[in-house]
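Minutes, project check-in
Item: structure for the 243-residue chain
Input as provided by the requester:
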Amino acid sequence: MTAAALEIAVDGPAGARTAFAAGADRVELCQALAATGGLTPSAATVDAVLAAAGAPERVAVLVRPRGGGFVYTPEEVALVAEDIAEVVRRGAGGVVVGALTSDGAVDLRALDRWRQAAGDAELVFHRAIDAIAEPASIVEDLVVCGVRRVLSSGRAARSIDGRAALRALVAEAGGRLQIMAGGGVRVEDIEALLACGVDAIHLSARQPSGDDAPSGPGGGVPGFDVTDADIVRRAAAAVHARS
């Protein structure tokens, strides 16, 4: 049996260093995680996190052009393709994407274009799958499009409450792609999530930084989150105990 992996969502090199030092196997890099659920990070941020990782397969970069839903215009699809190509050119081992049609199916044209842009990098389908009524119903499409890993909460706000849907995804995938549980994951949930047969656990492991310097009228809310080493350490122990 392949060992389960721990992936930590980070927004920069400091978070990546903390995650790796505390036992994470991989990071997903994004920006504006708290405000939007994550957007494409800057090129400089990608470079710095890759340097911290030491190996391309330890970094998957979210490529998402805006917040909101996952139905994209042709212009947005083209922009994502360009961003994917740039991220991969800089050395990322994986890219994280997701696109749906207005009737709730996978946008196969977008995904095929993004697969081509990604080249040999891993293509990961994110929680856009949780906006679909029956997530397991799109597994075949994802396999055909070359997706290697899927992030899902099982359509629940917290993955622990989506275990039935996660089990269905694992069964439908049949080892053809990895299923990663993520969304509201707490350390105490990990054992039960791994029992569903998932291949990896994803969480943000974030805590307030304690920096509450005023941001002024144009800087958003004061304060920001940082990756918490203790949460990552406990999560790593829970994941790797099952390996």
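Outcome recorded: Residues 74-89 form the longest helix (16 residues).
No further action items on this chain.
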